[in-house]
Description:
Its EC number is 4.1.1.50. Belongs to the eukaryotic AdoMetDC family. It comes from Brassicogethes aeneus (Rape pollen beetle). The protein is of the alpha+beta class. The chain has a single domain (14-190), classed as S-adenosylmethionine decarboxylase, CATH 3.60.90.10. It contains six helices and eleven strands. It has helices at 43-53, 97-108, 136-146, 198-201, 212-219, 221-224, and strands at residues 4-6, 20-27, 57-62, 66-71, 74-79, 82-87, 112-121, 150-155, 163-168, 229-234, 240-245. Strand 8 (150-155) and strand 9 form a beta hairpin.
Amino acid sequence: MAATEVNMSDGEQFFEGVEKLLEIWFTTGDGNAKTADLRKIPRHNLESLLKIVRCEIISFAKNDQIDAYVLSESSLFISKRRFILKTCGTTIPLLCLEPLLHLAEQFAGFTEVEDLFYSRKNYRRPELQVTPHKHFDQEVALLDSLFPDGAAYCLGAINRDCWFLYTLNPVPQRNRRPALPPLEPDQTLEILMTDLDPEIMSIFTREECLNATEATKKAGIDKIIPNMVIDDFLFEPCGYSMNGVTKNGHY
C-alpha cells in the first residue's frame, strides 16, 4: 500500500498535490551485498539530504524490513537496498541524487544503481515549480547526466492528464556483472484522486478533527489497511499524511 497524501487549498492559496516519486534499487559491483544496507545511513545525513529536497522528517516508524518516514511533504521509505522518496508541493527531489549516491557508498556499502524509477503526473500549476522540476525535459536532462542508459516516457495525452516516467534500460555491459541473487518481487499501486467531495475532504482539517488518529478513523483508512501499522499526521490548518507498513516490508 502506498502512502496516502491529501492536500487541500482554499481560494487564497494553492498547494501542488502532484507527487514526484523517486525509487532507486542499489547493488554492489561484485554482486556481494550481504552486509550492505541503506538503513545504515545516519539519521542526521538523511536530514541534510532532505534539506536539499526542501522538506523535513515529521515522524518515523520501522520494523525489521523497512524504515518509514512521514515528511512535511509526503513520505520516505528505506529498506535494505531500496530508497523510495515521494514528495509534493515545490520540492526538488532530483537534486538529492548525487549526494544520495555518495551516502549509499560511504555508509551503506552500495557502489552501483541497479534500477531507478522517477515518475509524476503533470502538474496543475507547473509555473510554480523550481528548476529542474519546471519541465519534464529538465528532469530528463539531469537524470541523463547521471545515468547514461536511462529512457523517458509519457503515458497519456500531454495536453490532458498524463504520467511522466524515467527508468533505466538494461544494456549488454550491465549484464556482465557476476550473477546477482534472484530479483525481489516488487509491485506498486498508485491511485491518484482529484476533485474530491469537499464535505469528505473536511475530515482532513483541524476544524473537523482534533488529531491524525481521529482523521484516520473518520476517513476509514484504518479499515482499508487493517493489518498495517499506521503512522499519521494532521497538518495545521488542513492536510493529512500517513504511512502504513507491514512486518513483511509492504508499505
